[in-house]
Amino acid sequence: MIFLITLPKGWVSHPNLINKQNDIIKINQLGWVSPTLGTSINKMKLINLKTGAISIGESEISLFDEFDKVYKQVGQQMKLAEQRLGIDEYNIKDVKVGEDLLTLRLIFIQRTLKSVEIYIQFNGLEEPNSWNDWTEQFELKKKAKQNEWIDNQVGKKRIFNWGMIKSSFDRKCGYSSIIIRRD
Q1: Does residue 27 lie within any of the structural domains?
Q2: Are residues 24 and 111 in the same domain?
Q3: Residue ranges making up the domain that contains 17
């Protein structure tokens, strides 16, 4: 069986692995690696701990990047969500990290990336189908899973030189998300 996956920036295939037979993974038409390397890709980090850069496919964006720079990196994936005086919000949907599916909301103020909100659709956690099915208990459960997800991404630390990351539950709006920003 062959699986198509994307390598993080800077990773390369190893030519000695080409000779393996039943346990080969095809990587973006670039080469071949073993399933053990594929497993480590599933545990890939979305957030670079040193810089705070966020990996989206083969691209990286960072807080305080200008809109044009972000657009050059991930513009094909960005969909305008909301615009108001000096604030533009774009969604990037279907970002796969491990077993979970993410939507990233990029928030630009005066055309500078000021924060990123991450909405996670956790594998194995069934989302409500409608507002009638929504419960606060579900969102609190999701917030707890978000805290675990953050721990897996960055450890217990939440404040860094590049900014901060936190799990948030907004009772008024009825949703939970992860927020990355510089205070």
Answers
A1: yes
A2: no
A3: 4-42
